[in-house]
Amino acid sequence: MQVPLSHQVDIVGFHAEATRLLAHQVPPETVEWSAAPAQSVDEQGLEDHRAAIHNRAARAIIPQSFIRMSELVVLHRDPQRFDLLYRSLWRLVYEPELKHDFSDLDLSRLRQMAQAVRRDIQKMKTRLVFRTLQVRGQPLPVAWYEPTHFICETVGAWLANREPSAHWILLTPDRSMRWEAGKLLSAPAVAPQQHPDAVRTGDDWARVLEAMPWA
User: Fold this and answer.
1) 138-182 per-position pLDDT tens digit
2) Biggest distance spanned by C-alpha atoms of the chain
3) Tell me, what's the pLDDT at 154?
4) pLDDT tens per residue, range 88-121
5) Is 42 left (phi over 0), alpha (psi -120 to 50) or beta?
6) 133: left (phi over 0), alpha (psi -120 to 50) or beta
7) 89 and 8, same structural domain?
8) Into how many domains does the chain fold?
9) 89 and 22 within one domain
10) Of 55, 74, 85, 89, which has the fewest beta carbons less than 10 angstroms from its beta carbon?
11) For 93, which DSSP code?
C-alpha cells in the first residue's frame, strides 16, 4: 500500500495516516511511505503543529515521550524513517511490554536519530552567520547553511520567534525561508554552487535572491 505524504517533514500527515492505518489494522510490512520534495512556494504559520495519535487503543499504550520523539525523527534524512516509525507504533500497540524494553533495536535506532537531529538543530543555531546584502534596494541580513537533516523550518521558526521584529533570509539546499512583516515565507532550495562562497560578489548573490519566487 502506497501512503504519500505532502512533504519531507509532514509530521501531521504522518500521524494522521498512521492513525488511519492502525484503526484498520494495516501491518507495517504492507505499507510503503513516500514524501514529496519541498519545492513549492508557500507561507507558513508559526503555530506549533504537535503530533497526535487519535486511535484510542494506541493512545493508551504508546508513551507520550515516543510521540514527541517522532517529531524529531521525521526531520532525520534517513529515507526509511517513516517505515521505522510506523513499525514501532504498530509494535507498541500489539506488543505492550515493548515500551519497557530499552534494548529494542527499533526504539534504540529512533532514539539515535532523534539525538542526531537535536545536535544538528543546535549546531545550525550556533553556526548561522548573516551578512547584509542589498536586495531590491533594501539592506537585508542573509545566511546560507547546509544542514545534515531537514531542520530549516524548525530553525527558521526559532529565529522568527526569537526576534519577531527582525527581517532576514535563510537559504539552504532543502528550503529557502524569509521572515518579513510577521510572516514566514518560503521559496525553493538554493543549490550549493549558488551560496555566497561560490559566487563572485555580494551583488551576484543579491541577484540570485531577487530572482527567487518568494510568496
Assistant:
1) 888 989 899 999 999 999 999 999 989 889 999 999 888 999 888
2) 62
3) 93
4) 999 988 888 888 888 999 999 999 999 999 999 9
5) beta
6) beta
7) yes
8) 2
9) yes
10) 55
11) H
- Give the domain range for residue 58: 2-119
Q: How many helices (H) and strands (E) does the chain have?
A: 7, 8
Strands (E), 6-137: 32-35, 43-44, 131-135
Within this chain, do residues 104 and 136 fall inside the same structural domain, yes or no?
no
Query: What span, in angstroms and rounded, lies between the C-alpha atoms of 106 and 114?
Result: 12
Residue 42: CB partners within 8 Å, gap ≥ 6? 186, 215
Residue with cell 488511519: 20
User: Cα(153)–Cα(213) distance, rounded to whole angstroms?
Assistant: 18
Same domain, 195 and 138: yes
- Whether residue 185 lies inside any domain: the answer is yes
Query: Does residue 33 lie in a domain region?
Result: yes
C-alpha cell at position 59: 493512545
Q: Are residues 22 and 104 in the same domain?
A: yes
CA–chain centroid gap for 93, Å, is 26
Do 69 and 136 fall into the same domain? no
Sign, Cα dihedral of 147, 148, 154, 159 = negative
pLDDT 10s digits, 46-100: 554 555 666 565 555 677 888 889 999 999 999 999 999 999 999 988 888 888 8
| Residue 215 resides in a domain | no
